[in-house]
Amino acid sequence: MLPPRTAFTIFLRGAPIGIEQMAVSRSAEGWTITSSGRLGAPLDVVGRRLQVRYTADWRPLAFSFDGTVRGQTQTVHTAVDGTTARSDIVVAGETKQKIDTIADDTLLVLPNTFFGPYEALAARLRTAPPGSTIKVFGVPQVSFSILVGDSTPEHFQTASRLVSTHRTHITLDLPGAKIDGEIWSDEGGRLVRLSLPGQSLDVVREDVAAVSSRSVPVSRSNDEQVHIPANGFSLAGTVSKPSEPAATNTAGAARSPAVILIGGSGPADRDAMVFGIPILGQIANALADAGFLVLRYDKRGIGQSGGRAESASLTDFADDVRATVRMLGERRDVDPKRIAVVGHSEGGAVALIAAAKEKRIGAVGLIGANGVSGADLVLAQQQHLLNRSTFSPEEKQAKIELQQRIHEAVLTGKGWEQLPPELRKQVDNPEFQSILQNDPARIMPDVRQPVFILQGELDTQVEPSNADRLEALARKRKNSPPVDVVKIPGVNHLLVPATTGEMDEYGKLPDKHVSSRVTDALAAWLKKTLATRAGR
Q1: How far apart are CA 3 and CA 478, in angstroms?
Q2: What are the angstrom distances between the C-alpha of 404 and each of 382, 440, 472?
Q3: Distance (Å, rounded) from C-alpha 105 to C-alpha 259?
Q4: What are phi and psi of 251, to 5 degrees?
Q5: Residues 165, 153: Cα–Cα separation, whole Å
Q6: Is pLDDT at 216 greater than 80 in this prediction?
Q7: What is the number of other CB atoms lying within 10 angstroms of the CB of residue 371?
Q8: CA-based, 20 to 30 A from 153: which of 80, 85, 111, 431?
Q9: Collapsing DSSP states into helix, strand and coil, what is residue 15?
Q10: Under the phi-then-psi rule, with left for phi > 0, alpha for psi from -120 to 50, and beta for the rest, what region is 176?
Q11: d(C-alpha 300, C-alpha 420), whole Å
């Protein structure tokens, strides 16, 4: 059970800027929500006490706020009688009154500052069907609607328990603007998280926000949580196992072929959640169903894994992959001669580097991976975005030239003084440097394993020509190790069905499932390729 009062952390642009304590209570008169807290810059708000009262069926009764906004004392008291809301507002000693007509089932919130009132929205969403509309009064000045979208179950593993939630897409239909967001509510209808990506705002309950907690969007009854010894720290991961045990070998041991999944760029956890799509989690589930033991893990410095991501290069991430290979090779339920690594996006580059160094890797899968140098890929991505923009030709050229100056500074160490300080801070790090330097043409000759190249034909982040380039490089290798290529029509970089494949389509995709054509092709190749290594 949750305590009567629960702390939430408010994040703006990924940085914590405040804490809010929230409580929800029930009495014979109905529901009462109270909260208090403090938000730092740039909001600079202190909420000494916020209270919202509702009837038992969540019809509004009253709202009050007492606090300080940017140094000015403010109080708001709103009484609701049917469809009439009467507000008394005091700002820096000046009082004014306001009367508004609202719907009788309106929710009362305080826009952009404190979020305790959204507990009522979390409760209302338990029964609100997709496509419905919830009326909201942003005290004391604006009425708007919240459009209810699809809802999907999602689990969070905390230090003490598994929290089951429903994640619901919402759209705030404000005067002159629509803001997409998501809200998570738990089994009791209590608020767990509110996210407004367009505002770079996240409000997260303390148990879920803790470093020891993680989202579990995909799970199997026989999943095993593991810790993998790496270079001075441990990686945390999940092993998903086949439902049916592997056949025993001549020594009486049941050993499965194993697959290690490697996520892409940025703070990727073991599920590689992007726009509501747990890419690696869904692939792991499909491969486990196909008879493989599958390991996916939090990138170093992310989620429950140790280490520091900001000081790591692609080679360091490849060393982490090698650590997972060593760990799996020592398990009694894994055939150490049938271990494959599969990397998605930047994870493909990491998989290649690891395979070039690690003989215990039996096969390499590259999904949406770069076939050109990282520097060329970044320029191609920027050029694609600029081609779709409304910038003038001169503005587009200026942006390309700036990107080229960034590359020169990062790769040669010269010209840093020509870059703005805030930009230099973003790009002056080992990972970005290694991304620009990465070139599969230099690595592929040392990769002796069979290679599988899978590409979505609607991928606009890593265009399909990269698959052709990877195939050409793989076929040039000495002794001609096997190479297989599959291109999937109608699938984007996130491996889901799409219409255009463009990044601005990601948040609107109705299908949040990795295409079965992707997982079927990958499973078929793994079965064929690893079967040839059995018994070696």
Answers
A1: 64
A2: 11, 21, 27
A3: 52
A4: -90, 0
A5: 6
A6: yes
A7: 27
A8: 111
A9: strand
A10: left
A11: 29
Q: How many CB atoms lie within 10 A of CB 405?
A: 16
Strand ranges, E, within 345-439: 363-367
Total residue count of the chain as it appears in this document: 536
Q: CA-CA distance, 261 to 276, in Å (whole number)?
A: 19
Question: Whole-angstrom distance between the N-terminal and C-terminal Cα of the chain?
Answer: 53
Query: Which helix (H) or strand (E) covers residue 69, if one does?
Result: strand 60-69
**Element housing 253 (H / E):** none
Q: What is the rounded (10 degree) CA torsion for 186, 189, 195, 201?
A: -110
**What's the farthest any 2 CA atoms get from each other in the chain?**
87
Nearest-angstrom CA–CA distance, 126 and 190: 10
pLDDT of residue 3: 46
Distance between CA atoms of 16 and 203, rounded to whole angstroms?
A: 9
**Residue pLDDT, tens place only, 140-187:** 778 899 999 999 888 888 877 888 899 999 999 888 888 899 999 998
The confidence score (pLDDT) of residue 247 equals: 59
pLDDT tens sequence across 423-459: 887 788 888 889 999 999 999 999 999 999 999 999 9
- Enumerate domains of the chain plus CATH numbers: 5-209 (no CATH), 218-244+254-372+439-531 (3.40.50.1820), 375-430 (no CATH)
DSSP state of 307: S
Burial of residue 128 (CB within 10 Å: 0-12, 13-18, 19+) is: middle
Q: Which residues contact 449 (CB under 8 A, 6 or more apart)?
A: 355, 361, 362, 363, 364, 481
